[in-house]
Design brief:
Aminopeptidase, 12-stranded mixed β-sheet, globular, 17 strands, 5-stranded mixed β-sheet, Nonspecific Lipid-transfer Protein, Chain A, about 35% strand
Length: about 400
C-alpha cells in the first residue's frame, strides 16, 4: 500500500485540490477565468487532503452552517461536500483515513451534526451517516396539466435579469427561512459555485420570483432543455426545475402555475422535491403529475449524540431509552432517554438498540422506528417502546433539504 498523510490543506493547495476533486468526479479542470470567479468559494478552512509527498491524492471538504431540526430550532451543522480520491488511489484506505480525521475535527469543534448528499449510498454508512430525508422526482405533462380553480392565487411572478438573480436570491432565501426539518442555511461561499454559475451572465438557467402582499416570498430556478429531434420535430422543450422555494402555499402554487403556463413546453421535470409536496392535488387531473422516483436525499450523522438529541423536540409519548453504538466516535456510545421533555444520558436499561447511522435515519422523522426495526436496523428489547418511539420522533411535515452542495 502506498503511504500517504492526511492533513489540512494550505491556501496554496486550494487550486490543486479543487482540480483533483473535479477529476475524481469526471469533470474538467477549471480554467483560470472560472477559478478567478469561484476560487474564493473553495477556501482552505475545513478541508483535509491525503498527500503522497506534496501531491494530493484525496480531498474531503465541509462548510459550517445551520440546519432546521424538528421543533423549529436551527442548530450548527457541518455540510460535507467535495469528497474525492484520485482514481489510481481508490480502495486503499484513503477515504477512510480522511473521513476519520474530518469526524474527529467536527467533534473537537463541538458540532452536533454533519450532513451530506451521497454520490453512492453504500459509501457513507460506514462512517455513521444514515439516509435521513428523501426526495421525489416529478414529471408534469404540458399543456394538459392545469391547476384547479380552488388553488390559492395571488401576487405576481416576474423574471429576473442575470445580475438580479445573482444579487437578490441570497436575501430572499434567508427571508423564506428554514421552515422544514432538514433545510440548511446557505453561507456566502455557497452561492458562487452552486448558484451564480447557473444564473449569471454565462449561465443557462432562468429565475422567476413571486411577490405577495409583503414582498418577494418565493423563487424558482430552472433551465430549458430541448427535446426536439429529426424524428420528433414538434416535441418541444422541457423545463427542468433546479431550485424552488416558497414561504407558503400561495407563493408555491403561483410558481408552479407560472411553470405550467410557459409556452412551447411539453413538460416540467423536478428532482429532489419534498415527498409530501401536494402538486398532484393542485391539478384538475392528478394523473398529469407523475412521481418517477423517490430517492435518498439528505444523509445525516450525529456527531455529538447527546447534543443532537437534546436539540430537537419530541411529540407526546412515554419515554424510550436508546442504546447507541458509535464505532468511530466511541464517546457517543451509551444509553439515552428520549421523551417529550427532551433527551439525556442515562444508566437505565435500553428499550431499543441501534447504531449511530440508524439514529441519523430516525433523527429528522423520515423513518419510523417500527419500520427500521422490521428492516433489522433496530434491536427491539421492548416491543411497546418501538411504537412509542414512532410517536416521539414523527414530524408533521416530511424532512427535506432543498439545497445542493
Amino acid at each position: 500500500m502506498t503511504a500517504f498523510d492526511v492533513r489540512p490543506i494550505t491556501e496554496e493547495e486550494r487550486r490543486s485540490t479543487f482540480d483533483l476533486l473535479r477529476r475524481a468526479l469526471h469533470s474538467r479542470r477549471v480554467t483560470d477565468d472560472v477559478w478567478a470567479r469561484i476560487g474564493e468559494s473553495w477556501p482552505a478552512v475545513h478541508k483535509f487532503g491525503a498527500f503522497d509527498g506534496e501531491t494530493p491524492v484525496g480531498i474531503v471538504s465541509s462548510y459550517d452552517t445551520e440546519i432546521a431540526v424538528p421543533g423549529g430550532r436551527a442548530v450548527p451543522v457541518a455540510a460535507v461536500e467535495g469528497v474525492g480520491v484520485r482514481a489510481d488511489r481508490t480502495r486503499r484506505g484513503v477515504l477512510s483515513a480522511m473521513m476519520a480525521v474530518q469526524l474527529a475535527d467536527f467533534a473537537a469543534r463541538g458540532l452536533p451534526l454533519a450532513v451530506l448528499h451521497a454520490s453512492e449510498p453504500t459509501i457513507y454508512g460506514r462512517f455513521g451517516y444514515g439516509s435521513a430525508a428523501l426526495g421525489k422526482t416529478l414529471r408534469v405533462a404540458r399543456p394538459a396539466a392545469r391547476l384547479h380553480e380552488r388553488v390559492p392565487a395571488g401576487g405576481d411572478v416576474r423574471l429576473l435579469t442575470p445580475a438580479e438573480a445573482v444579487k437578490d436570491l441570497p436575501a430572499l432565501y434567508r427571508r423564506i427561512g428554514l421552515h422544514r426539518p432538514g433545510m440548511i442555511g446557505r453561507p456566502d461561499s455557497w452561492w458562487p459555485i452552486s448558484h451564480d454559475r447557473h444564473v449569471g451572465p454565462d449561465g443557462d438557467h432562468l429565475v422567476a420570483v413571486h411577490s405577495g402582499p409583503d414582498g418577494d416570498d418565493g423563487f424558482v430556478v430552472y433551465a430549458t432543455i430541448t427535446r426536439r429531434s429529426l424524428g420528433s420535430p414538434d416535441e418541444g422543450a422541457v423545463l427542468e426545475v433546479h431550485d424552488l422555494h416558497a414561504a407558503g402555499p400561495v407563493a408555491r402554487a403561483a410558481l408552479w402555475r407560472y411553470l405550467l403556463s410557459v409556452d412551447l413546453v411539453s413538460g416540467v421535470h423536478a428532482r429532489h422535491r419534498p415527498v409530501d409536496e401536494p402538486l398532484a392535488l393542485l391539478l384538475t387531473d392528478h394523473r398529469h403529475a407523475a412521481t418517477l422516483a423517490v430517492e435518498d436525499d439528505l444523509w445525516l450523522r450525529p456527531v455529538d449524540v447527546a447534543a443532537a438529541l437534546a436539540a430537537r423536540s419530541y411529540r407526546a409519548a412515554g419515554p424510550v431509552v436508546l442504546a447507541v453504538t458509535d464505532r468511530l466516535l466511541p464517546a457517543n456510545t451509551g444509553h439515552y432517554e428520549v421523551g417529550p421533555d427532551g433527551a439525556r444520558r442515562t444508566d437505565a436499561p435500553a428499550d431499543l438498540a441501534l447504531d449511530v447511522g440508524t439514529l441519523g435515519m430516525l433523527y429528522l422523522g423520515q423513518w419510523a422506528a417500527t419500520t427500521l426495526a422490521a428492516a433489522g436496523r433496530i434491536e427491539v428489547r421492548d416491543p411497546a417502546a418501538a411504537v412509542r418511539a414512532d410517536e416521539l420522533f414523527t414530524t408533521v411535515t416530511a424532512p427535506w433539504c432543498g439545497t445542493h452542495f
